[in-house]
Amino acid sequence: MAESIWARVNGPAELGAFVREVRERAEMTQEQLADAIGADRKYVYQVESGQGTRYALRLFALLRELDVDIQVRTR
């Protein structure tokens, strides 16, 4: 990946959209990414579709309450 990309994420949906964009730019399938991290494709799908777990939803709520911003970027 030559061009670095970044995003400000405020919840699971925005984080999932960023993961999807980075994966697609890397020309990887969900299956390939899942294999690379030792997970199944369903997990990657859930992340990319913004399906927040109770932990993730509470974490983002905590960060919002503290007025904390998260930025993610490719290396």
Automatic annotation (TrEMBL):
Task: Spell out the Gene3D superfamilies in the cross-references.
Answer: lambda repressor-like DNA-binding domains (1.10.260.40)
Superkingdom, taxonomy of origin: Bacteria
In this record, what's one Pfam family? HTH_31
Q: Which residues form the HTH cro/C1-type domain?
A: 19-73
Task: Report the protein name in the record.
Answer: Helix-turn-helix transcriptional regulator
Organism field: Kineosporia corallincola
